[in-house]
Amino acid sequence: MTHRCDARFVSEPLILEWIFLMSESLTGFESSKMAQFCFDAENPLNCPICLNLLTDPVTTSCGHSYCMDCIERSWDLEVYRGVYSCPKCRTKFNQRPTLSRSTVLAEIVDGMNQEDPAGPEDVQCDVCKGRKLKAIKSCLVCLASYCQSHIQPHYESEAFRKHKLVNASSNLQQQICPQHHKALEIFCQDDQKCICVVCLGDQHSGHKAVSAADEMDKKQVKQRIYSMGCFQYALFNTGIF
Q1: Which end of the chain is more exposed for a tag (fewer CB within 10 A), N or C?
Q2: Cα separation of 184 and 193, whole Å?
Q3: What are the pLDDT digits (tens) for 169-190?
Q4: Where does the RING-type domain start and stop, copy by copy (predicted)?
Q5: How far from chain centre, in Å, is Cα 22?
Q6: pLDDT tens profile 38-71
Q7: How far apart are CA 124 and CA 102, in angstroms?
């Protein structure tokens, strides 16, 4: 008789134990892939929203760290509810928290990012002269990509504060709404498509919408664990990541 596990009744410690036990039985290739998956999700220097190395890191009062731009965009979508939450642990804040750059985390991340040349499959920094470094963010206003060093003006200068930053991409035009020329940063769950903030208040008014980045991350995680069995199904559906 085949038994199916119900993710609703699976605790986080049990899931983590499953991960360890499963990794013991995987082939070398599968084990390395599983280790990479866990690294992406649990590395304290990775943003829980974009899963990349922290950029302009900030830490909430509940102790979780995010890229400044990632958490600000996430909270922008909660303005209408009037309650803000931590995407990681769901702690709720009645007022939008004021965030300050975590200097210690920033120094650690900056040290890891120094002299990181772009590889054949990486997006190159558009500002670097000579040897191009790996871009970590792209700006949908400037339509340019920047390395860790050259992205700093976007965090430090008021002139760039309202620019929309996304993970480094070589296809920036595809992330702009062709009708309103705004960033496609919202995912309409009713129509299953990415839209801009103007679309949300217009033809998609009243539709259920979430952050496009959050939706993309969920699909990436789901794709990674799709064929690896019941415990991965529980891992995804319990919302740990």
Answers
A1: N
A2: 9
A3: 888 878 788 888 888 888 888 8
A4: 47-90
A5: 26
A6: 334 467 788 888 877 788 899 998 889 998 888 9
A7: 26
